[in-house]
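Figure 2 data, in text form.
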Amino acid sequence: MTYLSLLLLGLLPPIAVLARRAARHDSAPQTSTTHQLTAMVVLVALAVLTTVPWDAALIAHGTWSYPRGQVVGWVAGIPVEELLFIVGQPLLTGLWLRTLRPDRPVPPPARLTCTARTAGAAGCLLVAGAGALAARTPALSYLGLLLAWAGPLLAVQWALGGDLLWARRRILAAGVVAPTGYLWGLDWIGLHLHLWQLSAGRTTGLQLAGLPVEEALFFTLTDLLVIGGLLVATDPQALARLHLHLHQRGSPGRRRSTSLDGSSQPAQSTGATGAARRRSWSSGTHKLARARRGPGAARTSSTLCASGQVAGLGGLTRLRGDDLQFPINVRRKLR
């Protein structure tokens, strides 16, 4: 058996079955289906752009190799079969997610403040930095480079939709476990048939479920990126946050108010004072600069999280003109 035959027998049939099943049981509106398919195509393109250079670097450093005669050719520093796998994995995992009907209603997002999402993203970046340092040790090079590669990608997901992913954590877990287990099996077959080989000097030697721990972690992280990416990319709140962020960076003088459903409208102001106190509402990151409740309260600031709640103080009841109306418990704290 060759690498290509393993892909044709182990990857192509389940993709075809899942595609047919997803099409047969698809009850989502046409616009939602088109959006999900577009997100999947974009995700496949991002997988190729981000994975091929990393894969080529590991092959160049001898982390894994391919026996002569096991591949049909090379492109961009990796075997053609490896490129086909990079395209096939997100298709397999993404189609599996569609069978779970991720468009079904879910509970409101958990109360994760913007600070919590930022801290989660920072944690992913710290893991990536630790991986980059660990990669200097030969036996930890595969594990370290894997963490350094996946960490920033997970940080982007968490920063945009950590609360949204937590609200869909059951779908996230179900979407990751099944395809990851299946890909572990394919990888086990490939390693035992010597279709590819790992360098003993660049791996820890630890095993999980009969696989090198680095390989097991690779498939877990990549499926987590695929499922998380699709859930965030198809969520209106995450798209509204991204749109607001890009809009504010492109036109800092023009602030818009974005509601939870993703719609946006110009922020209102009353005269010069209202314009100076214009507030930016959205499903993304918001800041409350001042509150008109006395000299001491003018210095009070708070960060609004994505769902429009006030971190540390309680919920904001309404915004009228340039004046902010707070609940009673917030007024007492401001006084």
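Caption note: Residues 253-335 have pLDDT under 50 and may be disordered.
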